[in-house]
Amino acid sequence: MDKDILMRLERGREHYENREYDKAEALLLEVAAVNDGFADVMNMLGVIYHDRGQVALAQEYFEKAVGINPRYTEAALNLAVTYNEQGLYEDARRAHEHVASLQPETSRDIEPFARGKLANMHADLGRAYAELQLYDKAIAQYREALSLSPGFADIRTKLGQLLKDAGQYEAALRELRKVKLDRPKYIPGRISLGVTHLKMGELNQARLEWREVLEIDSENRTAGMYLRMVEQLIAQAEAKAVGVDLEVAPPVRGEEEPVANPAGDDELDFAFEDDRSSLVSAGKPGPEDP
């Protein structure tokens, strides 16, 4: 579908949810003129017309919604109401019987490749929301991705980072500790776990995580920089406790040190890699696994 129509659909839904029915109607009618296969568009138009007292027109759109999706319970109930209001009692009875006959749809199994593809699509949408700092929407998309492919360590790591950025530190720790448990040698997860401890002011725990990263990969530059920074912060705190002011050493020439600030922003976070290292993690060890 054309991007412009998708944008109109999204705006129409937003206006509908805000009960701005005049604005919603215009946009939803434009969508329906291009694609009449959206059951929810037909149902929303039916609700708009019913709200205005145009019951016969509302009935027409509710019938379209149920015709597109016979399992659309809300539209079927709305249709029964409009029948009843017009004295079409036999039609209303049949509509009610139809609603009562609907059984919960059993979930279908999705084959692994398709599950992974869908998970990555949710993650990509989550990334887009994150770039706009819409953290709640981004987090929801990453959780949806993990519901499909819970073994994707990179997606769980990014979820942990987002939770940290949203100030949900305990939730971030839960996700990142799970990455550590499932993939102890997955370095981005371990570094992000240290960053979360740092943001919480837990300097010793952050130091421990980054020391362990260097035991896995002694050449890891990010962990090395972060470790030097947190050790300086710990030394400062210890010196201050005995009445001594200790200055943090400036970065070594040519190195990009992270800012020595436990409450700092994303400079302290590990860059999330575009390649999906987790694609091999569903039942197969990744390249950094033992």
What does this structure look like?
It is a single chain. 66% of the residues lie in helices and 0% in strands. With 290 residues, the protein is an all-alpha fold. α12 runs antiparallel to α13. The radius of gyration is 27 Å and the shape is elongated. The C terminus is likely disordered.
Chain-wise SSE layout:
Layout: H1 3-17, H2 21-34, H3 39-51, H4 55-68, H5 73-85, H6 89-101, H7 112-131, H8 135-148, H9 153-165, H10 169-182, H11 187-199, H12 203-216, H13 221-241
Helix pairs in contact: 1-2, 2-3, 3-4, 3-5, 4-5, 5-6, 7-8, 8-9, 9-10, 9-11, 10-11, 11-12, 12-13
Percent of residues in beta strands: under 5%
Average per-residue pLDDT, rounded, comes to 81
Poorly predicted ranges: 250-290
The name of the CATH superfamily of the largest domain reads Tetratricopeptide repeat domain
Q: In one word, what is the shape?
A: elongated
In DSSP terms (H or I, runs of 4 or more residues), the helix count works out at 13
